[in-house]
Every structure is written in structure tokens, then in C-alpha cells.
Amino acid sequence: MQFQSLEQFQKSNLSSHSNLQLCLSSQMMGQQGAYQLRQAIEQCNNVNSLDIQLSKNWIKAEGVSHLGKGLSKCIQIINLNLDLDSNNIGANGVQKLFDGIKHCSKLQNLSLALECNYIGSNGLKYLGSGLSLCQNISILSINLYDNAILSEGVNYLVESIIKCQNLNNLVLSFVYNNIGNKGASNLIQGLSQLINLSQLKLSLGSTWIFTDVNSEFGLAFKQFKNLSKLVLNLDSNKIENQEICNLAEGLAQCQDLQNVILDLSRNDLKEEWLNNFGTKLKNNQNIKIFDFIIVYNQKVNNKFQLLSKLRKMKRLVKLYYKI
Q1: How much is the pLDDT for 306?
Q2: 133-150 burial: b if 16+ Cβ within 10 Å, else e
């Protein structure tokens, strides 16, 4: 059942809902509206699939606290999708949210859109602590776009997320957060401990990753044992040929990997990177599909040479190219 307004939802038969979608974005709800939403959600004790879209409502930490208290009563939830984009909830708001979610012991599929909320690294400490209590989650998606997160924040999250050993599908976005090489390397090394993980999508665009002789980012991928699909966005960093070679060497050792989408747009790549990449990757014959996204790399300016080299990889390869 879908509702476009809080009032409409409040007037419905709340206890009868099992599959519920609330489209409440940009409705100037504020903290008072969040309190009213809590009162209604608390009565939805039979809901097992819940999608709440609350972006751009400025509910802040107090409003999220109300939401968390409402969710704590929905103990039958299996699928939960929360869009809290641009609500200024801060680190405290994340803590209050998981004070409620931790009671949803049947939760298997969780999606959180937390863009532009001033969460910071401390917020990831609370996020990680909350996730560590959700032992049955198998599908997890978290968007942390532009939240002033540093490398230590990534460490907090990874230390806890590896306790969710039922995870098989994971989507994480750290776009526009200054996690750097250290944060990116620790992220990959930590996630590789999720032994049941088969699908991984990482968005690390504009996260200050650069080529460093001491970087373990690319090589860390070799630790994944059961990964079959990888989507990796490295757009708008300072990555050069050597780091790409390390990445290829790491991926070459992921023997279950079959499908890769790699976005290297707006980096410092040179023409010879693809030769090196293909040479490193040829040892992994299980990769059947490989999509390259290479736009606005001014040092890679011959599309036809790229296509010729890609064909030699003997994979089903697609190239998205623009200079």
C-alpha cells in the first residue's frame, strides 16, 4: 500500500498493512511531523516490508529519534528502506535510529540513504554498532554521500559490518568523503572477511584515493574468495597506472569473479595502462563480462586503440569513452 501524505496514512487501517510505502519527501514535516509519523508506525505491528521516503524534511536528530521509536514496534519487518537524505540528523541521529532498528530481529534487507546529513566519522561508529546487532541481514545498501567522513570512520564501520556474516549483497557509497588511500584499503581488507559476500558495489568517487607505493588498495581485492560480481566506481580521484596494475593483480586472484564494472573516469591514466591491466588480468579466465567507464581522461585519447586492446582480453567487454 502506498501513501503520498502523512494525513492519508494516519487515516488508514494501520494494523492491516503488511507491505507499506510512504512517499513523504520534501513535505516540510519537521520534528512534529516525525512525531506524528512515529505514532502511526507504532500501530503497524504486522508490517513486514516498509519503505519510508523522508528526504529533505529537516527532521534532525530528534525527528529520527521518533522514527526509531516507531520502528522498534515493527518487530515483523523483513525488508526496510529508509531515505533520510538531507535531514541534518548528525551522528546522534544515527545512534537514535539504530536504537529502534536493533529491535527488528527478523530484518534481512536494509537500505539506508543518508546523504548530506553531517554524520561524520563518529556517526559511522554508531552505524557500525547498530549493524553489528542485525545478524540476519543478507542484503545491505548504505549511501553516505557527502558526510565529512574520514578514514577512521571507515574503520569503525568495517569493524562492525564484518560481524554480519550472512551478507551476500552489499552496496556502499562514500562519494565526496575524504577517506583517502588508508580508508579505502582498510575498507577492502575488512569486507573481504565477509565469506558469503557474492555481490559488491562500491562507490568511491572523489574520496582522495591516489597512487602511492605503499598503498594496498588494489592488491587487497585478492582476499575476496566468493565474490562473483563487482561494481567499482573510482571516478574523480588521482589514480595512476601503477595502482590500476595492482587492482588488476588483485582481481586476477578472485577466482569466482565473473562480472566487473569499473569506472575510472577523471583519473591520471596514461595510454599504456590497459596493456598492463590486461596482462595482469589474463590469469583469471572466469571473468566473462567487463565494463570499462573511461570518460574525461585526457591522457587516454585514442578510442580505437583502446577498443583493439580490449578485444585482446577475450572477454565480453564494453567501453564507455569520452574525452
Answers
A1: 60
A2: bbeebbbbbbbbbbbebb
Give residue for cell 515493527: 74
Mean pLDDT by runs of 10 across the 323 residues of the chain is: 96 97 96 97 97 97 98 97 98 97 96 98 96 95 98 96 96 97 94 97 94 76 95 92 87 92 87 72 80 72 59 64 58
Question: What's the sign of the alpha-carbon dihedral 99, 104, 109, 113?
Answer: negative
Give the DSSP letter string of 129-182: HHHTT-TT--EEEEE--SS---HHHHHHHHHHHTT-TT--EEEEE-TT---HHH
Q: What is the pLDDT of residue 213?
A: 53
CA dihedral 153, 158, 160, 161 (to 10 degrees): 130
pLDDT tens-digit series, residues 241-260? 888 888 989 998 998 999 99
Alpha carbons 166 and 168: distance in angstroms, whole number:
6
Quick one: cell of 114? 543518508
Select from 215, 225, 268, 271 the least CA-distant residue to 246: 215
Hey, what amino acid is at 303? K
Question: Which one, of 197, 261, 273, lies nearest residue 235 by Cα?
Answer: 261
Query: Hey, which residues does 110 pair with through a beta bridge?
Result: 80, 140
- Amino acid at the residue 277: F
When computed from its CA atoms, the radius of gyration of the chain, rounded to whole angstroms, is 21
Q: What is the tally of structural domains in the chain?
A: 1
The Cα angle at residue 69 between residues 66 and 75, in degrees rounded to 5: 145
**pTM for the model:** 0.94
Q: Give the CATH number for residue 148.
A: 3.80.10.10
Residue 84 structural domain: 2-322
CA distances from 238 to 48, 123, 129, 172, 249 (A): 44, 27, 32, 20, 19
